[in-house]
Amino acid sequence: MFREEDSIRVELTYSPLSITANTNFVKSPKAGAVVMFAGCTTRDSFNDLPVKSLTYQSYPPLALRTLFSIASEVKAKHDLTAISIIHRLGTVPIGEESILILASSSHRHPAFAGASEALELTKEKAEVWKLEEFAGEGMEGVWRANRDGVMGVKMEKGDGEEAVSQANTGGGGEDVRGRAEGAKAAEKAADGEGADVSVGD
């Protein structure tokens, strides 16, 4: 699932991430610098608990729209030649990349700044949730927001949208309800009420 135009590519995939293919996308004779961030957020511990794996979920039409908006904003702000944001979905084993962000520009400073800002905005805004599963007897998985250092809340079967929304922010509140409403609106749009996201595979 991807969207690509104007030297911008955003993608959600269940496959292992290809550093080579995505580097080739942002490379250009006009670009003297290519910067890449590879996020192995599937570290083997969190809050001193042994992590077995991470499972990422998303609502692709809404998430792709958000990622493309982020990439467009960052590309214009830092005068980038090209930018790519790729996020993996599904279960990601320990040690594998879950996100790649690549930016190219005529000089290194805009490329570094653009890649860094794209990462922070993706963490802040993209509609991606993750289930952190812990190793050990009696350990249960915990959904949490795709944020750094934010412990999630346990989800019970049947908790539904409220629990997912709480996991997305680490606790609830107005931002939770707003995201849930946004997801509903995007789903209606994708069902034929004005969706404008181009999705490939």
Describe the structure.
The chain is α+β, with helices and mostly antiparallel strands and 201 residues long. It has a single domain (2-190), classed as Alpha-Beta Complex (Aldehyde Oxidoreductase, domain 3), CATH 3.90.1170. It is 35% helix and 29% strand. It is built from five helices and ten strands. The strands form two sheets. A five-stranded mixed beta sheet has the order 1-2-6-8-3, sandwiched between helices. Strand 1 (2-5) and strand 2 (8-13) form a beta hairpin.
In short:
Helix content is 35%, strand content 29%. With 201 residues, it is of the alpha+beta class.
Walk me through the topology.
Elements: E1 2-5, E2 8-13, H1 19-26, E3 33-39, E4 45-46, E5 49-58, H2 60-77, E6 82-88, E7 90-93, E8 99-105, H3 108-125, E9 128-134, E10 142-145, H4 160-169, H5 174-190
What attributes characterize this protein structure?
201 residues; alpha+beta; Aldehyde Oxidoreductase, domain 3; 5 helices; 10 strands; 29% strand; disordered C terminus; Mopterin_biosynth_MoaE; MOCS2B; MoaE_sf
- The appropriate CATH architecture is Alpha-Beta Complex
Mean pLDDT: 77
Structural class: alpha+beta
- Mind telling me the CATH superfamily name? Molybdopterin biosynthesis MoaE subunit
Binned strand content: 25-35%
